[in-house]
Every structure is written in structure tokens, then in C-alpha cells.
Write a structure and sequence with these properties.
The protein has about 130 residues and is α+β, with helices and mostly antiparallel strands. The chain has three helices and five strands, in the order H-H-E-E-H-E-E-E. The strands form two sheets. Strands 2-1-3 form a three-stranded antiparallel sheet, covered by helices on one side.
Length: about 130
């Protein structure tokens, strides 16, 4: 679907002159045959982009599941992205990233199975130790 939208989408001349880029969110109504019967813009961009998004959406055809003969209407919301061609901007020097700091090791838990009666926990230098009898 994205490839189809990219191939059919034309940036309006008004948006091209103004350098407008952004996303138009369109809500679709799809009938039981998979045809788009209605579309309205949820998030507007202006400069003719809204009308172009609705035009392209009406070209879509969906595969809808059969619902035991019940004619249902499906709703879907899609985002249509408008991007200008490659701009000629001044090259911004990229700052090298510092090396990543090593992650300290997390404390580990060790279990020892001993066949002796359970005892109270004993405190060690670096934590507690428990004996579990089975």
C-alpha cells in the first residue's frame, strides 16, 4: 500500500512553492466490496495537500473478509506523508559520538541445594545466603 501511495502521490504546486512538508491523517470508510466510499481529513496540512491525500485514498482498493453475507462498513485511518525533494542545505558537520560507557555487571543470584535441615539466613560480606531444603 505504501508503494502505491508513493507512486500516485503528487505534491501540489502551492505546497511545493511554500516548502511545506508533513503528514495528513485520513479516516477511510471501506464498503463490503473493499472500495473506499468516504474519506475525511483528521489532521490537516493545507496548501492543497489535504485534497491530494483524499484523491489518492479514493484510488485504493482493499481485500475485506467475508462476514457471512453481512454487508459491513470498515473504518481505517492512514497517514500520508508529504516530503519535498532533496533540499540543497548547507552541510552540517557531524560531531563524533563519544565511546559508550561500559555497563556495570548486575548482581547475580546463586542457589545451592543442600540436603540438610533449613537454617536461618546467614549474613555474608556481600549479601545474604539462604538454604532451601527439598
Amino acid at each position: 500500500m505504501l508503494e502505491f501511495l508513493k507512486s500516485q502521490l503528487q505534491i501540489p504546486e502551492e505546497a511545493r512553492k511554500a516548502g511545506i512538508e508533513g503528514t495528513v491523517r485520513v479516516r477511510l470508510d471501506i464498503d463490503f466490496r473493499g472500495k473506499v466510499t468516504g474519506a475525511h481529513v483528521v489532521n490537516h496540512l493545507g496548501y492543497g495537500c489535504d485534497e491530494e491525500a483524499v484523491r489518492v485514498v479514493h484510488l485504493l482498493k482493499f481485500d475485506v473478509p467475508r462476514n457471512r453475507g453481512v454487508k459491513t462498513i470498515y473504518h481505517k485511518t492512514i497517514n500520508i506523508h508529504f516530503k519535498q525533494g532533496a533540499r540543497q542545505e548547507a552541510a552540517v558537520p557531524v560531531q563524533p559520538t563519544p565511546p559508550a560507557m561500559p555497563v556495570p555487571e548486575s548482581p547475580s543470584v546463586q542457589y545451592t541445594v543442600v540436603s540438610s535441615p533449613a537454617k536461618k539466613p546467614t549474613q555474608k560480606k556481600d549479601g545474604y545466603s539462604y538454604n532451601i531444603s527439598i
